Amino acid sequence: MNKEITKVLILRFSSIGDIVLCTPVIRNVKKQLGCEVHFLTKNRFTSLVSSNPYIDKLWSFNSEVDEVVDSLKKESYDLVIDLHKNLRSLRLKKSLGVKSISFDKINIEKFLMVHFKINRLPDKHLIDRYMESIDEELGVKDDGDGMDFFYNSSVLKSVSTLGLTQNYIVLVLGATYYTKRVPLHLMEQIIEDYGDKQIVLLGGADVSELGITLSKKYKNTLNLTAKLSLQESAAVIDQSRLVLSGDTGMMHIAAALKKPIVSIWGSTFLGFGMYPYYGKKHSDKNISIGMEELKCRPCSKIGKHKCPRSHFDCMMQIEYSRLKVAIDRQLKLY
User: Backbone phi, then psi, for 236, in 5-degree steps?
Assistant: First the structure.
């Protein structure tokens, strides 16, 4: 690309994990090109990047990008980096009428894996595919530092009043889709088996009743479901010793903060390239647990609200002994 790039707009409209996965692109473009970097997302996700020092201007919209198109046109961008790549982002790029870069979402390969269990997926993480596209177009290299998550220092003050003890474990209760949620019986076994440690329960309003139920039953739990902002949740994760989570946005935040993780996989699939990512300069602190041998898995590329076969074996058949070995190993190492 011959023209000097002075101002770039990066697009990723949702969701929590997907936006965190964009942060290596944001950082490397800013540091290596030295240009002005703008980022566009939905209003409810702005706190994920509001403290990011590599973003010069943060744009957001409520429901449609048309809300900000006129303002974006006035910015005279040299380049749009589209990490969302759908009809909505395509319309926006056409409206702006500037050079753009996107990437292959490998939807055909995902379709083949989900519906026919034919694996033609590339053996690489989504972030590596992002960076290959950026390198090819702009000469921007992966610095190996992995993902970023920044939170405002004032958040630490509010977190300090929550009653957290030292060396606590975070257990993420929620997930957008049911088939990515850790089953109750596994959660209860974890809480019971590690009764000498504080287990901090994180999640949104959708799992608040579950958080209340578990905290009443088990005295070693601290229920913070539906009580924290995204930045406060990140600060709680950052001070923890270990994070236990399904395939969730909180899992990716934990990886961005370089925390040890035991990730528990249901209907989704590591081969889609969205497992915890630490960067080439950092050790991999994740252990993934899942029923890899199940013929019905994966049944979706993003998860489902119920098991298509009504048995939910991908989570229900996970043996607790496997989880315990992974948790003990992580607690010993970190």
Answer: -65, -45
- Which strand (E) or helix (H) includes residue 286? strand 286-290
* Digit-coded pLDDT (tens) for 44-61: 999 999 999 999 999 999
195: its two tokens: 């009764």
Domains and CATH numbers, the chain: 7-138 (3.40.50.2000), 154-333 (3.40.50.2000)
Q: Could you tell me the pTM of the whole model?
A: 0.97
Separation CA 8–CA 26 (nearest Å): 10
Say which amino acid occupies 113. Answer: M
CB 81 within 8 A of CB 29: yes
N- to C-terminal Cα distance for the chain?
44
User: What are the start-end ranges of the H helices in the chain?
Assistant: 16-20, 23-33, 66-73, 87-96, 107-116, 126-138, 154-159, 184-193, 208-217, 230-238, 249-256, 313-316, 320-333
- Residue 176: alpha-carbon gap to chain centroid: 12
46-19-297 Cα angle (round to 5): 140
